[in-house]
Amino acid sequence: MKRINRLGRQFLHLGLLPGVLTLGLFALPSCDDEEEDLIGNWVEEGDFEGVTRSDAVAFSVGDKAYITTGYDGDERLADLWEYDADKDAWTQKADFPGVARNAAVAFGAGSKGYVGTGYDGDNKLADFWAYDPATNSWDSLGDFPGTPRWGAVAFSIDGIGYVGTGFDGNYLKDFYAYDPASGWSKKTSAGGSKRRDAVAFAIDGIGYVATGMNNGVYEDDFWAYDPGSDSWTELRDISNATDDDFDDDYSTITGDSGLGFSMAGKGYVVTESGNVWEYEPASDLWVERTNLEGATRTEAISFVVNDVGYIGTGRTGVPILRTSGLSIRRKKKMNTTETSKPDRDSGWLPFLRRSLPCFSSFPVPSPAPGTESGQLNPGKGGAMNSPSVGVGWSTSPRFQPSRGTSLFSPVPMP
Q1: Is the separation of the CB atoms in 284 and 223 below 8 Å?
Q2: Among 32, 130, 317, 341, which is least packed, fewest CB within 10 Å?
Q3: Burial class (CB in 10 A: 0-12, 13-18, 19+), 378
Q4: Is 24 helix (H, G, I), strand (E, B) or coil?
Q5: How confident is the model at residue 12 (pLDDT cuts 50, 70, 90)?
Q6: How far apart are the C-alpha atoms of 96 and 384, rounded to whole Å?
Q7: pLDDT tens digits, one per residue of 354-400
Q8: How far apart are the C-alpha atoms of 83 and 81, rounded to whole Å?
């Protein structure tokens, strides 16, 4: 019998308070010279009221957020839930009218949310839909102009949505824009490698794409998209790729099925292992923040409401947390890039954390069976390759035995 580990029905949000960065006032005793302070705190929110799930999508419109689609371990889903952050309350809305699916994309633009692409268990999908919160209704936009796919990314800038990358049987890097006034248009393909299950976010009119998988390799190139010039600019790699000091600790950013979002002018990547990295566009540098509290998770969702980020649901994990205030804990530097994927029958073992000096804890996954190449790839961080359709764990992409409703939310440090 298949063992299913599901996440709790809660959310987390991370809060980073402006003007509270005097580390000397909060520093814990040092254990040795190889330690560093990680800043930020996760706060638990109320339970998500829908079915536990992973590989869902989320979008924000105004001061509300929405979660739809996903996979509960047995069935793909099409229910829609609205989250009121002020009340920490959930309300079920009109079901997504397309075929139930997982591995879709979503974005909010203007007064509407948009959902499309994905996988229904048999077919890769290209249909796209618009949701109007004012009327609680959906409208069909027809098909996305690219090939049917799953594992794509999306972001929005100035009321226009951008969708690209993913997997249609081949890895992809094409990009398209959706303008509610004029429809779809082809844009310059993303720079660098093709990829699926990457992360994307937008800051001050620029879109960013990072991480993801390409033929069994975790990609470490990082790209910025300027819609004004329809061009991509390569930024510093998100791995320890140089002899300089700035990237010495960049050992836990790469991966797939992580989360990307932006708030307060900074970008955030949360990895499957619970590592939280903050991106500063002005310096093109990353800073590690306090790890996601609770169990590690994969194929979760994130959204931002009122410049506060939230993380929830996913495969194997716990409640929704948000941060309100400053928390510092010590963590020994680990000069390693080796990670593993979870066993899809047993899921992740709990990821324990304590607010103690010198405490280090790590997820302890069962070794994964064969994946796309079935081998560790030292060339890209030694990360275990993730599963492909019909290989290893499941005949469906991104199969998830452990599904959850937990929500976490991060707030940026200045």
Answers
A1: no
A2: 32
A3: exposed
A4: helix
A5: low
A6: 34
A7: 221 221 222 223 333 333 333 222 232 322 223 222 222 222 333 33
A8: 7
Distance CA 252, CA 208 (A): 18
* pLDDT band of 292, cuts 50, 70, 90: confident
386/149 Cα distance (integer angstroms):
17
Under DSSP, is residue 249 helix (H, G, I), strand (E, B) or coil? Answer: coil
Q: Which helix (H) or strand (E) holds 187?
A: strand 183-187
Interval 248-262: pLDDT, tens: 999 999 999 999 999
Read off the DSSP letter of residue 273.
T
Q: Which tokens hold the place of 342? A: 């979870």
Give Cβ neighbours of residue 181 (< 8 Å, ≥ 6 apart).
none
With CA atoms as reference, report the closest residue to 294 among 400, 413, 411, 407: 407
SS3 sequence of 326-384: CCEEEEECCCCCCCCCCCCCCCCCCCCCCCCCCCCCCCCCCCCCCCCCCCEEHHHCCEE
**How far apart are the C-alpha atoms of 85 and 34, rounded to whole Å?**
39
Place of tokens 């069962």: 366
3-state SS class at 274: coil
Look at residue 78 and tell me whether its pLDDT is greater than 60: yes
Instruction: Answer whether 378's CB lies under 8 Å from 34's CB.
Output: no
CB 36 within 8 A of CB 331: yes
Q: Which two tokens stand for residue 223?
A: 């790209």
Tokens matching residue 283: 């310096």
SS3 (DSSP) at 172: strand
What dihedral angle (degrees, nearest 10) is formed by the CA atoms of 114, 216, 275, 338? 180
Q: What are phi and psi of 181, to 5 degrees?
A: -85, -25
pLDDT over threshold 90, residue 17: no
Q: Look-up: residue for tokens 């689609």?
A: 69
Locate 390 and state its tokens.
Answer: 């019909």
Here the contacts of 132-136 (C-beta below 8 Å, separation 24 or greater) are 133/61, 133/62, 133/64, 133/66, 133/82, 133/93, 136/93, 136/94
Q: Which of 157, 106, 102, 160 shows the shortest CA–CA distance to 131?
A: 106
Decide if pLDDT at 329 tops 50.
no
DSSP string, 110-163: TTEEEEEEEE-SS-EEEEEEEEETTTTEEEEEEE-SS--BBS-EEEEETTEEEE
Of 395, 262, 330, 344, which is closest to residue 36 (Cα–Cα)?
330
